[in-house]
Design a protein that fits this description.
- This protein has about 500 residues and is of the alpha+beta class.
- It is built from twelve helices and eleven strands.
- Strands 6, 7, 8, 9 and 10 form a five-stranded antiparallel sheet that branches. The chain has a four-stranded antiparallel sheet with strand order 1-2-4-3. The protein has a two-stranded parallel ribbon with strand order 5-11.
- Strand 1 and strand 2 form a beta hairpin.
- The longest helix has about 35 residues.
- The radius of gyration is 33 Å and the shape is extended.
- About 25% of the residues are buried.
Length: about 500
């Protein structure tokens, strides 16, 4: 086999590879001999079909299989002999006019990963912003639980319902006088002012008394998730069966015991831990942003254009999908179009940081153990039906790219943890608002880690979190509360290029 380098420009490489016809012919003959014992043809005993007949009958398929295998072997040899680190799958073209009996002329083009030196980590300094949990915050959390756990007791006879009271009602919803599916319920609990029903529903029941029968008119929101109800005016026939008032909840050991705990101190301890956990994730995000900015400042090397293009396409697809869901899709799309080059720069930065993190990990022996990987596969398999999980496991085992995608996020976090351990970390107490402001101030579009066993599956750092629109309630047809709260308007278009793109 003859290999000739034709291109060596930056990270681009090109080769011509000649596979002699004799090599291919020899492999074909060997394969024919191998499969002959399994071939069955009329008139011949099993395993006794002559090799020339096997070749005549199956020669075209055998030739194709052998050629494909030989090309793969040639590429492996090319990569090994020239110590290449392909950035993407090589582009291979078989010369025109090739046919069996001729030399196979291959044209191979590819991009290689740049040579990267792991940075000197001496003197790496990071600031860790922590939010101490104050007793007042814990008390507020306890009060919220007490509020949500409040009990309602029957009101005095003849009491008119007021905001904060609970009604037990039967209702029947109608469109143009015709009852609609899912719009009927009996003994439904409604707390006036809780905002769990569509706008205008609860308010019209202020002043209601036990035994009242009312007809109210409401309009479903335009964005209501049940399409047959969205924007429609409907009436509800209401029968008030009970009026209840909220009982006073005493926050003490007995209250904690009603929640299945030992005492109030245990409840406060659990809530303190939850509050600390809420900010620990933000603290890590802030430190990681800071770390990646430091690494980015010292990272100057070329990155493979194909990897940048793949990264940019992923970013752009996410942005355009989000723009399409905005109230004014055309305006949202125009906004991101105006910043297209900025997103391309983000793609370059991500790829560069990803390669750098991978180099640091490899240089310092960071790896994912077999046990950790098995756990990743098991967790990923849970999204499938029980009967399909084993097939998913087998699929991961047979597809290196899929395995790399599963490894990438964990590998990144392990590299980051390694760098945290290496750094000199100083701690500063801040408020929750100050921590959030610090995260938003650090744009920090992070890199994807391309691990030592990764064919460029990757994960990246999440940038400053933006407030999401409130989740939509279920449609009336899906539950008892036919008039549940309407979804709020969506947040305006966001720059999510650096937020949560999926791993490639």
């Amino acid at each position: 086999m003859q290999i000739v380098e034709t291109t060596n420009e930056g990270l681009k490489r090109g080769f011509t590879v000649t596979i002699p016809a004799g090599v291919i012919a020899e492999k074909i003959e060997s394969e024919v001999v191998k499969i002959a014992p399994q071939v069955q043809l009329p008139g011949f005993r099993p395993g006794k079909v002559p090799a020339n007949l096997v070749k005549k009958r199956f020669g075209a398929q055998v030739h194709q299989d052998v050629l494909s295998q030989t090309i793969r072997e040639a590429l492996d040899k090319l990569v090994a002999d020239h110590a290449l680190r392909p950035a993407t799958q090589p582009d291979v073209a078989l010369g025109e006019g090739y046919e069996e009996g001729k030399d196979a002329e291959l044209t191979v083009s590819l991009e290689v990963l740049p040579a990267i030196s792991a940075p000197d980590l001496t003197g790496l300094k990071l600031e860790k912003l922590v939010v101490p949990v104050k007793d007042e915050a814990v008390d507020e959390a306890v009060a919220r639980i007490a509020s949500s756990a409040k009990r309602f007791n029957d009101a005095e006879e003849g009491k008119a319902a007021a905001t904060g009271d609970q009604l037990i009602i039967d209702f029947v919803g109608k469109l143009d006088g015709v009852e609609f599916d899912g719009g009927k319920a009996e003994d439904a609990a409604l707390e006036i002012g809780a905002g769990r029903f569509i706008p205008g529903f609860e308010e019209q029941l202020v002043g209601a008394k036990v035994g009242d029968e009312k007809v109210i008119t409401v309009t479903f929101p335009e964005e209501y998730q049940a399409a047959h109800l969205a924007g429609k005016e409907a009436t509800f026939d209401i029968t008030v069966k009970s009026v209840k008032v909220a009982g006073e909840t005493v926050i003490d050991d007995e209250f904690a015991k009603s929640l299945g705990l030992t005492d109030l101190d245990q409840l406060k301890g659990l809530l303190r831990g939850q509050l600390e956990g809420e900010t620990e994730g933000q603290t890590r995000t802030q430190m990681k942003r800071q770390l990646l900015d430091i690494l980015a400042d010292g990272a100057e090397f070329d990155v493979p254009p194909s990897m940048v293009e793949a990264e940019f396409n992923q970013i752009w697809q996410q942005l355009t999908q989000e723009a399409a869901r905005e109230e004014d899709p055309a305006a949202a799309l125009a906004e991101i179009e105006a910043e297209k080059e900025d997103y391309r720069k983000i793609a370059v930065r991500r790829v560069r940081l990803g390669l750098l993190l991978s180099e640091i990990g490899q240089a310092n022996g960071v790896e994912i153990t077999a046990q950790e990987f098995q756990m990743l596969v098991s967790q990923a398999a849970q999204q499938y039906r029980p009967e399909d999980r084993q097939r998913f496991v087998e699929y991961v085992q047979s597809e290196p790219m899929v395995a790399a995608q599963l490894r990438a996020p964990l590998y990144e976090e392990k590299v980051v943890d390694f760098l945290f351990d290496k750094a000199e970390v100083t701690t500063r107490e801040v408020t929750k608002e100050e921590l959030q402001a610090a995260i938003e101030a650090e744009e920090g579009e992070a890199g994807h880690v391309h691990g030592p066993d990764c064919d460029h599956g990757h994960e990246e750092e999440k940038p400053a979190a933006k407030k999401k629109a409130a989740p939509k309630k279920k449609a009336a047809a899906e539950g008892e509360e036919a008039a549940e709260a309407a979804p709020k308007k969506k947040a305006p278009a966001k720059k999510k290029a650096a937020e949560e793109p999926a791993a490639e």
